[in-house]
Amino acid sequence: YRSKKIAPVSTVPDQPSATHSPPRILVFTNSNEDAIRLQYILSKLDKRLSSKIGTLTKLSKAGRHTLNRFRKGRLSIVIASDRASRGIDVPELTDVINYDIPRSAVEYVHRAGRTARAGRAGTVWTFFTISEGAWFWASIARGQSGIQRHDKVARRQLEFREDLDALTTRYENALEQLKYAVAAGSSHK
């Protein structure tokens, strides 16, 4: 699995999410494999997240079960692939995170539209690599593709609560565990 280098910026409205309910976060990836792998890595990075994260790769019986648990607040985070994203409606969704940059402006609008429903506040975070940044700022942030927005897109410097070297080591260990899990899974087929 590739390591994603993320530029130390994200995009959010100038006003932070104003909500008193616990965060309910929908993370988008471009593929089912990326969604599953991201859940695995996050669960390894922080064991407390294991029971709070779900993955939505299609709206099967299992997918509907995950979505219902998310709607009821039993899950705080759902990582969804674009394939499964159509029709997701979660009341009081506080944040949408574009872990993988959308492939088009239309896809960005669709993802961002999952939050701030029915007049509620919501925040959209978009992580991108340096090479993806030029497209994002031209097409999305400056609205050259016709996107209308309520708030200005702002850059935010990511701050880490712990030593970045220690976090990097934990991330590399999680990637190594993922590599072994994938190899073990393929040998059982």
Q: In words, what does this structure look like?
A:
This protein is α/β, with parallel strands linked by helices and 189 residues long. The chain has helices spanning 32-45, 61-71, 82-85, 105-112, 130-141, 164-187, and strands spanning 9-13, 25-29, 53-56, 77-81, 95-98, 123-126, 153-157. Helix 1 (32-45) crosses helix 6. The longest helix is centred in the C-terminal third of the chain and has 24 residues, at 164-187.
Overall morphology: globular
Spatial strand order of the main sheet: 3-4-2-5-6
Fraction of helical residues: 25-40%
Given as residue ranges, the uncertain stretches (5+ residues, pLDDT < 50) are 1-19
Question: N-to-C SSE series?
Answer: EEHEHEHEHEHEH
Radius of gyration using CA atoms only: 17 Å
In terms of quaternary structure, what is this? Answer: single chain
Strand residue content: 15-25%
Number of helices: 6
Main β-sheet description: 5 strands, parallel
**Class computed from helices, strands and strand pairing:** alpha/beta
Mean pLDDT: 78
Topology, number of strands: 7
Span between N and C termini? 19 Å
How would you briefly describe this protein structure?
By secondary structure, the chain is an alpha/beta fold. 39% of the residues lie in helices and 17% in strands.
What key attributes describe this structure?
189 residues; single chain; two-stranded antiparallel sheet; disordered N terminus; alpha/beta; five-stranded parallel beta sheet; globular
